[in-house]
């Protein structure tokens, strides 16, 4: 055998590689032409890899030396180098050559070493030097999995890692699924799902699972649980299943209240969803439209433990069937699926969508936002709320095209996603009412004051007059920009949020509880103190879509008839009922206290500043969009006045907190620091008459989560 190998080395015919662009058929032909050496001691193969490997792939250095058949009395060539690169030599020199130039720079994978190869396996373009052509032999590695030839060692390591992340541990010419040992089981909310090692990279895996989106899944579950309390059973769709974690949680916790359909257009994802259903002891009803056959996996007929799994495009499945609850969570923007979602969604149903294209929504790629959402935005201090209103505006227009209106139940914009939950109101009148709330925003780029443009089609001579600030008159050039179109209505429904909080408490969703308490505070726009799940004025009734819904202490019930839609007469009669005082919409947008801080002054604590604004007669609350944000109906000038009044000079002492004396409060002969006097003069320029104290007392109780500073 050794002599045969030596002759092959001299003729440079060892395991000639086919170019990478050629397909499987050509490689099989090449393997048939060269003699099989798998039965000899040249290659050390295992049953895990049924096909022949290149001779540069070995387990031990001794196996590589066997290829050269080292003998002390004979000169032997290197089996991995051409003769013109390394001439035949004695065993001791060849041993050092194999060890230093091939073995030490190898890439290890599952006990095998992929050594560097200098043979003419990889086609290299010739270098022309004068009239001579030099055939340059390029060093390269042979992949143990897919037979690709890689030049650099770092590229080879990355190439192998990509195979491992995809679950490919065997030759790509053998169509086998990744072994179950490469999958790991992840548990969330008492639901088990198995995922691939690269589950956190959506563009490189079929089973995308992001643990950071746990809060997102909990909020959607609470919204579905509230809807399930209104009517039973409801048909819900997870349009982008991936691992199926969300649909499995719905079916496992809500059982007979919901009929779950999980859809994905990827075949591997559908297989993974089916396995995860079995892992959670759920029956599967397969509905693959391409094959026109329905297959029920499990014993017996469909019941509450059965999940329907479909393999279709999301737009197709939403066009074919009607649902009460639809959730859209594609990779990126959801705008391509909004028309299909609102086409067949039932009246008073819910559509939730998660957008992860944050570069465009957060104004880092403004041209993409204009292309996807038809909206002009810039980076502002309130950019997260701007993103939420941009998404809702796109949702409103899509619903209006289907003669449907919306009511926003929830809008959340956090670090990793923007979540919007809306209730669908069928009819042209709600559609018109919703469309009227999509308006443009006038934003001052100097002071960041903002105001929605007035309704009407008449062109104003000077739109700057709508802004409360006077930057246009005092600053050179054009100071404001027109943003939008944006949603100008409310972002939250207090009654729905309170019922979501009850569901979160019932199912022990701690992360969702903390955020929902903050959202209730923000929706009612009052100072957080001690939280209560019911408002004192109307403990048992909340209003949604003009309909009162009863919310007792123990569970969320409604006047809606279970299993039926409410008749139009009942809807009309309940819509005429008087709205409670606390249902007034919260002020749009918020101010960042650091953005408007005063140089050389120590700001008061945020919670104390909220109290000062409330004492001045303004509605005020914290916001989940920004931990240092303040949502208030106070104009920016009054906001800065109160902030300056209760700030202390830095050099006087940061510990002493108290109001800065305004000109009317300074006594004769009292010494005022120079910096303070300058700020007081600035305050005189911007201070206006303080509004009267609001007559409505907000005595709601709120969470300690909001009070943390």
UniProtKB/TrEMBL annotation:
Location of the region described as Disordered in the Swiss-Prot/TrEMBL record = 19-47
Keywords of this entry: Isopeptide bond, Metal-binding, Methyltransferase, Nucleus, Phosphoprotein, RNA-binding, S-adenosyl-L-methionine, Transferase, tRNA processing, tRNA-binding, Ubl conjugation, Zinc, Zinc-finger
Its subcellular locations are: Nucleus, Nucleolus
- Biased-composition ranges for Basic and acidic residues? 19-39
Q: Which GO terms describe its cellular component?
A: nucleolus
Molecular function GO labels: tRNA (guanine) methyltransferase activity; tRNA binding; zinc ion binding
Q: Which reaction does it catalyse?
A: guanosine(27) in tRNA(Tyr) + 2 S-adenosyl-L-methionine = N(2)-dimethylguanosine(27) in tRNA(Tyr) + 2 S-adenosyl-L-homocysteine + 2 H(+)
Kinase found in the keyword field:
no
SUPFAM superfamilies, per this entry?
Answer: S-adenosyl-L-methionine-dependent methyltransferases
* Any single GO BP term: tRNA N2-guanine methylation
Q: Highest taxon of the source?
A: Eukaryota
Gene3D superfamilies (alphabetical): N2,N2-dimethylguanosine tRNA methyltransferase, C-terminal domain, Vaccinia Virus protein VP39
Q: Which family does it belong to?
A: Belongs to the class I-like SAM-binding methyltransferase superfamily. Trm1 family.
What is the name of this protein? tRNA (guanine(27)-N(2))-dimethyltransferase
Q: Could you tell me which species this protein originates from? A: Rhadina sibilatrix
Lineage at the top is: Eukaryota, Metazoa, Chordata, Craniata, Vertebrata
